[in-house]
Design a protein that fits this description.
The chain is 6% helix and 34% strand. The protein has four helices and 38 strands. A hairpin with a 2-residue loop joins strand 26 (444-451) and strand 27 (454-459). The radius of gyration is 22 Å and the shape is globular. The N and C termini lie far apart (54 Å). The relative contact order is 0.15.
Length: 601
């Protein structure tokens, strides 16, 4: 393998990226040639020979009513993530933002909402880390939310927070909550409050989690097949106030700017083994993890159809990770050989948000990642055999241009036609961006349509509604059906401006069917695959852990059926288990599918 990486004397995010764009070619082409020679992998693909300049054509005008309505003002959800930039520290800590976790913490069948608060810098020298409050909002139905933070045991002294992840770590039937951030990870157990309700208890120390690193996104999934959800935590950089260089901006005259990630060293990520709900053990060394990627996004999903959750990780400025699960106790990192480590030019990207879904009807989980300015967002089509092709170009992704800095994202079938669409929010990390970009950036909606016999993503942001025309510093996105009407809604966290709640009002006449998967004795189901057979079509979706950016979405699996009013068969390939089928389930409702139980509920 060739290793020829030129250095850069520039400081800020953008100047680092510009230098790297010019200097990484030799490095990455060498890697590409080595990978191809070793594995016979032609991951450069046909797109390498079909390069076209980005299509800067604006999205078509809206046709018909907007697909999303902003419900924030009338919902009772009033909250803002704050990053502490008023202290003028220009720290890279301020650039990451916060996330949203959807969690039915009280078991009433409605998704509640946890939002991280961020932090600030205190003391005479403004170098003491303090956390802004995080909040829990209970879903009362009818698009009304109530702040229940204090009653739920979450009114406390917080660290500088970023993300959240949800799982039933002790298999008692109630979802628990993990919160990440700078210097600390906190695990909360969902317990009875003695008054007929539920509240959260901090069990971090009792469970043996002593994570003092800088943690960002996290995802849960049963990695070793024992039924208990294990925990992957992305770690970012070795920044501190003792390692806080002064960086100049790329624009002449900008004497102070946020330093880019290349000025710091990446941190080793963590994988915690769940010891039957009684404790967690850090297994990162046992799995050979190295400090090779500044982690920002992670999704756990079965990419090769073997019924085991694999792990896809987006890193900031280094190649992405893809850990293939080879069975109990064995993870094999195969990002280069699989074709997902870099883009079609052989460049590692600055990757933030991630997701996975069957966007092309192949029955396999393709991978998606949002990237930095001057880079296309990455779509990696799964062609089987643990090989992926770079599909961004011929799937229309370049049409949105390259001035975006992407964060929270996800596949979501907006109009319930059975084809997963894409949503992504954006916002720069540099306070004074150059190169045609801006600090505040618009979110985008990409509609999955057919074009010349293949799937293509068409920019329909203007159809999305007013929210999609307002620039902001978008960060976390959670996707979920907040009113149980079979349409996926959105919750978006921004830096220093309010969280936004969007109701999906697209395609009210389209049919749908949804599923809540329940493993035997509440065992973890991440890595399972659900297949819906219609008379003339097969749809495939996946039970996932993590995903998006710093956020946790609806764990239920939702299928849009379009004009189809009958479902012939539903098949669940349980992770680490058997396959079950259910016939003739009625659409336009949610079903509970319990492992080993013949009847759906």
């Amino acid at each position: 393998m060739y290793l020829c990486l030129c250095g850069s004397n520039s400081d800020s995010f953008e100047s680092e990226r510009s230098a790297l764009q010019l200097s990484r070619v030799t490095f990455c082409v060498g890697i590409a040639l080595a990978a191809a020679a070793i594995g016979g992998l032609l991951w450069l693909g046909r797109d390498l020979f079909d390069r076209k300049p980005p299509d800067d054509t604006p999205p078509p005008p809206a046709a018909g009513p907007p697909w999303f309505r902003d419900m924030t003002a009338e919902s009772g959800l009033h909250f803002t993530y704050r990053n502490g930039e008023e202290a003028k520290q220009f720290s890279i800590l301020e650039s990451l933002g916060g996330g949203v976790a959807l969690i039915d913490y009280d078991g009433d069948g409605l998704l509640d909402m946890f939002v991280t608060g961020g932090g600030y810098f205190d003391g005479a020298d403004k170098k003491q880390f303090k956390g802004h409050p995080c909040k829990l909002f209970r879903n009362r139905g009818g698009w009304k939310f109530e702040d229940v933070t204090e009653a739920a045991g979450l009114a406390r002294d917080w660290h500088y927070t970023h993300g959240a992840a949800v799982a039933d770590f002790d298999r008692d039937g109630w979802p628990d909550l993990l919160v990440t951030g700078y210097g600390r990870v906190v695990l909360f157990h969902n317990e009875p409050d003695g008054k007929g309700g539920r509240h959260f208890v901090d069990v971090t120390a009792a469970m043996g989690i002593h994570d003092t690193s800088w943690s960002t996104s996290a995802g849960w999934g049963d990695i070793d097949g024992d039924g208990w959800p294990d925990l992957y935590v992305c770690h970012y950089l070795d920044w501190s106030f003792e390692n806080n260089p002064l960086c100049k901006g790329i624009i002449p005259g900008v004497e102070r700017e946020v330093c880019g990630p290349a000025r710091f060293k990446p941190l080793k990520h963590a994988l915690y083994h769940n010891q039957k709900g009684r404790a967690f053990r850090d297994m990162s060394d046992a799995h050979g993890f190295r400090a090779a990627g500044s982690g920002l996004g992670v999704v756990l999903v079965d990419v090769n159809g073997d019924g085991r959750p694999d792990i896809f990780v987006g890193n900031d400025g280094q190649h992405k990770f893809l850990f293939i699960n080879r069975g109990p106790g064995r993870l094999e990192e195969k990002a280069f050989l699989a074709g997902v480590a870099v883009d079609d030019n052989g460049h590692p990207n600055a990757s933030m948000g991630v997701d996975a879904d069957d966007y092309d009807g192949s029955g396999r989980a393709s991978l998606w990642v949002t990237n930095f300015q001057h880079e296309f967002h990455g779509l990696y089509g799964n062609r089987g055999g643990e090989l992926f092709d770079y599909h961004s170009r011929h799937a229309g992704i370049p049409a949105i241009g390259t001035n975006y800095v992407g964060f929270g994202t996800g596949f979501v079938d907006i109009d319930n036609d059975g084809w997963p669409d894409l949503v992504a929010v954006h916002g720069h990390v540099t306070l004074r961006p150059a190169g045609g970009s801006t600090l505040l950036q618009q979110p985008i909606l990409l509609h999955n349509v057919e074009r010349k016999g293949q799937r293509y993503f068409e920019n329909v942001s203007k159809q999305g509604g007013e929210f999609f025309g307002i620039p902001a510093r978008g960060r976390g996105v959670a996707i979920g059906d907040l009113d149980n009407d079979g349409r996926a809604d959105l919750v978006v966290s921004h830096t220093n401006t309010p969280v936004v709640l969007l109701r999906n009002e697209a395609a009210p006449d389209a049919h749908w069917i949804g599923f809540r998967l329940m493993g035997h004795d509440h065992r973890d189901v991440v890595g399972s695959t659900v297949i819906v057979d219609l008379d003339d079509r097969r749809l495939t979706r996946f039970a996932k852990g993590g995903g998006s950016y710093l956020s946790a979405s609806d764990p239920r699996i939702l299928f849009g059926l379009g004009d189809k009013s009958a479902v012939r068969r539903v098949t669940v390939k349980w992770s680490w288990g058997e396959t079950q089928t259910w016939d003739n389930l009625r659409p336009d409702r949610y079903w509970k599918l319990i492992e080993g139980q013949a009847e759906a509920e």
